[in-house]
Amino acid sequence: MVVDRHLKLYGGRDPRELPAYSVADASVYLRVPPSTLAAWIGRKRYAVRGGSRRMPPLISPDRATGHLTWNNLIEGYVLASLTRTFKVPLSKVREALKRVGGERPLLTQVFHSDGGRIFIETATGELEDVTQHGQLAIREVVAARLKRVDLDDNDMPIRLYPWWKDPEEARVIALDPRRAFGRPTVVGSGVKIDVLVDRYLAGEDPKALSRDYDLPETSVNGVIRWSLGVAQAA
Predict the structure, then answer these.
(1) Of 38, 142, 183, 185, whose CB has the highest number of CB atoms within 10 Å?
(2) What pTM does this model have?
């Protein structure tokens, strides 16, 4: 397993299962409102006759801290892809997850969508519609989990590339549980983006930052644009 050599550093635990992200931080990386993420993890209440009730959780964060793990972040990314990028209603997602089954289908199953429907790949390589009782479909669909996710040798997620405006934009920032304890770093390096942004806001030039950290200037500028965009949207 790719992460085996990192287990000793994290007390023998897989770093992907350690609590690392508050709801506020995770909502930034996933490009969803904090209230939406709170609903996904079962912290949002909605009115019913005679009182209120919590939404059944789709993601289970760490019980002791309430923070999300890196694997939770991937589960949130799949939900965000299906509901916000591909416009699949959350009710359909819930139905699809029930049909697929398993302990953590958002993490272990590759979902595909054509916008409105969800598919999984069958043993024969066909795509089965799990929102329409098993109907088959042509392959002109997009894999929700794989769009900006790298997999390890066991086909499990190991790296996420958050985006700002478009999933097709260049990969500038990476979230890797084996680097910087899962905090965002510049792609291809261990440099945390907070370091670059803090120095930029203190008045330093991107060219100087590029030289100091041996990074392409395009990467430095991309990190700054991403971070400032996040700050403005907050």
Answers:
(1) 185
(2) 0.86
